[in-house]
Amino acid sequence: MKYFSLLLISIAFLSSQERYSQVQIPVATTVELQRIADLGIAVDHFDGKIGGNISVFLSASELQQLDKAGITYTVQIQDWQKFYNERQLLESHRSTKIASNVPKYFRYGSMGGFLVYDEIIQQLDSMKLLFPNLITTKETLGASIEGREIFSVKISDNPEMDEPSEPEVLYTALHHAREPQGMMTVIYYMWWLLENYGKDPEATYLVNNRQMWFVPVVNPDGYVYNQTVSSNGGGGWRKNRRD
């Protein structure tokens, strides 16, 4: 009975997930763009341009809102998750070997190559273990609405000191839960700085003359949600889990 109940819960959970589609919407003016935004649909970034067509990823419920408002659109990819999974199968024969010029300790993650939340935290711990004089121990900026910690670290030649003469720079990623490319870029850059300090002139200059702060996961709840519903990557949830 217990296993049957778990099965029912799993089925209900999976069936509750919305399908995301990539669609193209003709938008002639900023007034028309604002009309879409007034429906509660995020159009703060998109491919294309006003005065032509914009391409965005929308959930099934958001497409229903467009239909009710009489806003026309063309579906480019009906089911983004299905498309993503099929593309992964087609590309599975490709080598996942990391090129020789990539930082030694940079690694792909377990979600279609992207690091999952726990793996990101492990990366921060590994950086501190391997380069204790160049990076701080991770510290929490606070907790998300679901109780996950939002961590930051600092990279500099004297990471534990405040050096007012050095400009401070902040790097953040995963504001939007479905955009892990930025997070992977931040992690890559961190490893590049640490591994090339004292070897590469540019990396050495930056570490010696900047106080660089990194927050690789601004939106942990949304990201973990995508991990849960799309464990191979491609999850379409964008916001946090407040609504």
How would you sum up this structure in a few lines?
This protein is an alpha+beta fold. Helices cover 38% and strands 18% of the residues.
Structure description:
The protein is of the alpha+beta class and 243 residues long. The chain is 38% helix and 18% strand. The chain is built from 8 helices and 8 strands. The chain has helices at residues 2-15, 30-37, 60-69, 80-90, 117-130, 180-196, 201-209, 220-229; strands spanning 20-27, 47-48, 52-59, 74-77, 139-143, 149-155, 168-172, 211-215. The strands form 2 sheets. It has a 4-stranded antiparallel sheet with strand order 2-3-1-4. A 4-stranded mixed sheet has the order 5-6-8-7, covered by helices on one side. Helix 6 packs across helix 7 (201-209). The radius of gyration is 21 Å and the shape is elongated. Residues 1-16 have low confidence and may be disordered.
Cα(first) to Cα(last) distance is 33 Å
Number of domains: 2
**Number of helical stretches of at least 4 residues:** 8
Order of helices and strands: HEHEEHEHHEEEHHEH
Topology at a glance:
Layout: H1 2-15, E1 20-27, H2 30-37, E2 47-48, E3 52-59, H3 60-69, E4 74-77, H4 80-90, H5 117-130, E5 139-143, E6 149-155, E7 168-172, H6 180-196, H7 201-209, E8 211-215, H8 220-229
Helix pairs in contact: 6-7
